Amino acid sequence: MTDNNRVVVLLSGSGTTLQAILDQQSQYSYEVVGVLSNRPDAFGLERAGKAGVESLSLDHKLYPSRELFDLELMKHIDAYKPDLVVLAGYMRILSSAFVEHYQGKLINIHPSLLPKHKGLNTYQSALDAGDSEHGTSVHFVTEELDSGSVVMQAALEITPSDTAQTLEQRVKVMEHHLYPKAIDWIVSGRIALQDDVISLDKKPLGPQGYRIPETSIVTEK
User: Per the residue annotation, which of 60, 110, 139, 176 is the catalytic one?
Assistant: First the structure.
């Protein structure tokens, strides 16, 4: 293990992405030290408990503003002294203060090959656009939606029989292998961010980060 491997995960729902991160933790150098949710009924909190990871829920409905909620959330996150904060199905718009506080230490995974198809409904958007491929991107979080520096991407070919639902299922499989790998590469120091430029092993990458083909994502490390 490295000395900079402490990870806090934020989620709002069932926690399938968290489960993938926890299941692969033994293969990598990160350690999930805390899981927080804005929804007390999020099943992801139960997943954390079963894995022996500390968890906490803060109901955002009890706070008069987004800013006050985020300030309280930041206190609890900082208590874990995280080296990386990971959004895993966290369905809240983040305040400017929150994003600034964790600048360069806050990542998200988005179901598209950024900069294509930002926002919601990316699977249908890719089909409507007639794209030949679709995929997923891990990126650092900035105030602009889905616009931070891309760390890593994985892509698959869109088939004639694909629907938004089948495409989502196929991309989710890739996400559950891509995200743990990206987390590991960041906390281990292989991935670095400087002046919005991503480097892998001290070699600058292009604007779409490190690209992993569908055929190798499960086995490549």
Answer: 110
